[in-house]
Amino acid sequence: MNKQLVLEKLHGNLIVSCQALQGEPLHGSKIMGKMALAAQQGGASGIRANSVRDILEIRKRVDLPIIGIIKKNYKDSQIYITPTITEIKSLINSPAEIIAMDATMRKRPKNAQLPEMLELVKESGKLAMADISTYEEGVDAKKLGFDIVSTTLSGYTEQSTSSNAPNFELIRQLKNTLNIPIIAEGHIKTPQELIQTIKCGAYCAVIGSIITRPQVITKYFVTALKCLKR
Prior knowledge:
Blueprint: H1 3-10, E1 14-18, H2 29-41, E2 46-50, H3 52-61, E3 66-69, H4 85-92, E4 98-102, H5 114-124, E5 127-131, H6 135-144, E6 148-150, H7 168-177, E7 182-185, H8 191-199, E8 204-207, H9 209-212, H10 214-229
Parallel strand pairs: 1-2, 1-8, 2-3, 3-4, 4-5, 5-6, 6-7, 7-8
Helix pairs in contact: 2-3, 4-5
């Protein structure tokens, strides 16, 4: 895998997160494969996908770079995005070119150690992406040796400030400090917000729910109508 070529394909472009958890209407690898194909036809330059099964199906449908994750809940930790070495090993054997994992300061399940997980990814030759929630976590991720930092978890941890808008300031801070790609992810709902993330220094951006989760999209518009009636 040519890491530089993968990054060049993503630079300045849109990655679409194609995910549907168990219990959601669109859950299923076949559906996610079609969702990824629709994203590619719409001009997406990359896909973020959850589970090896979905990644395999998506690879059959599209030739775009894939950011692979495995979401799994453990009782002893709040971390659920690629939380342990077990998930890392599964993703290493998948077609995903990039492996993303929670790189926040929170305690990992099963006493998993982030440096050890990162080392496995580096040894595999794949790109390692840190999903972070704060500036300090982004700096730490760069020091550890991550290839990419993403603002995925900003607003979703106790250490970060909750917001319904993209964290533009965090993107600026990371861009001004780190010399690795910064991916904007989280709360991007409009083309204007997407453009603003790039202007703030994002290498590229990930959009998920507002494109690929109809129940969330519907609720977004229904809520707007309810506000009008008040």
